Amino acid sequence: MDTTLSIESDMEETKTTPEDIRLLVAAQISLKSIPTENQNIYYRRILKYIDDYLETHCNHHYIFDWVDINPETSKRICYCEHCFKEK
Ligand SMILES: [Zn+2]
Q: pLDDT in tens for each of the 87 residues of the chain?
């Protein structure tokens, strides 16, 4: 069985809710807590699937904010308030 095709076709048929997005973002944050060098190929694929899913299915709403680089410098960023993806 080709799991890649199965996952992709499921993604297109499934309706996404804000709760799905919220839970996938939480899962993504949790999975990213393992350093990249310690993630095997399957682990990275799961993260990539979540990333692709959020990119395509999130109803992105971008907002602007400032982050401190150091005590004197701030940087303006733009990110989605639902999935936190930066623009
Ligand atoms: Zn988003």
A: 455 555 555 555 667 889 999 999 999 999 999 999 999 999 999 999 999 999 999 999 999 999 999 999 999 999 999 999 999
Q: Decide if 74 is inside a domain.
A: no
The total number of structural domains in the chain stands at 1
Interval between CA 58 and ligand 1 midpoint (Å): 5
CA–centroid distance, 25 to ligand 1, in Å, is: 10
- The pTM assigned to this predicted structure is 0.72
How many Å lie between the centroid of ligand 1 and the Cα of residue 49?
A: 15
DSSP string, 23-84: HHHHHHHHHTTS-GGG--HHHHHHHHHHHHHHHHHS---EEEEEEEEETTEEEEEEEETTT-
Asked if residue 22 is part of any domain, the answer here is yes
